[in-house]
Amino acid sequence: MKRLIGILSIASLSLMFFTAYSQQLDTVDPDSVYQGTSEWLEIEGVQTHFTDITATNQIELRRFFNRIYPDSFIVKSDTKVKALFNIGTLATAVYEIRVTTNTDGLMRLQNSVTVLANPNAPALLGSTPDTVMQGTSFKLTISAKNTHFSSGSNLTAYLVRGFGQNFQADSAKAISETKMD
């Protein structure tokens, strides 16, 4: 019995040593990002070998089947890497960060990054006129917020009626960043 307790104690101490000194992801900064933005995330690890990272698909932001890889990354040290993520239209939710290296294998930090709805997302506000006669040509002015109509090079406008009925404007011209005809 004493021998069994001694073996279990050694096994327990070995497990504690392995857990205390194993490679793992520790923090991500910032830990929240907005939809529609590009963000540099700094990932810190413990006993990691980030200098083994050679491709962007070795770093990912993931939630179930939603995953994005960074556009680029900068390895700062064996325990620090910065990755530039284009958040785009990822669903608002909590995501995990994953990093894979040849030495460490797959490391995950669950619930590490929250994607928030962008409070400054582009939005259409209205149009003038709001009523037209069927069969007539008309000039439509569209108002929006947080848009860049005059910065764009391929401005297009559609009217949508029901399912699959799209009417493309003959022409579209930017009046300002937030108005178009």
Keywords:
5-stranded mixed beta sheet, single chain, 4-stranded antiparallel beta sheet, about 180 residues
The N- and C-terminal alpha carbons lie at a distance of: 87 Å
The amount of helix comes to 10-25%
Helix/strand order, N-terminal first: HEEEEEEEEEEEEEE
What is the SS-derived class? mainly beta
Mean pLDDT: 85
* Uncertain runs: 6-20
How would you characterize the largest beta sheet? 5 strands, mixed
Portion of residues in beta strands equals 35-45%
* Major sheet strand order: 2-9-8-4-5
Q: Tell how many strands the DSSP assignment holds.
A: 14
Based on CA atoms alone, the radius of gyration comes out at 26 Å
Question: How would you describe this structure to a colleague?
Answer:
The protein is mainly β and 181 residues long. Helix content is 11%, strand content 45%. It has 1 helix and 14 strands. A hairpin with a 3-residue loop joins strand 12 and strand 13. It is elongated.
Brief overview:
By secondary structure, the protein is mainly beta. Helices cover 11% and strands 45% of the residues.
Chain-wise SSE layout:
Blueprint lengths: L1 H20 L2 E6 L2 E3 L3 E9 L12 E5 L2 E3 L3 E6 L2 E7 L6 E9 L3 E12 L6 E6 L12 E5 L12 E4 L3 E4 L10 E2 L1
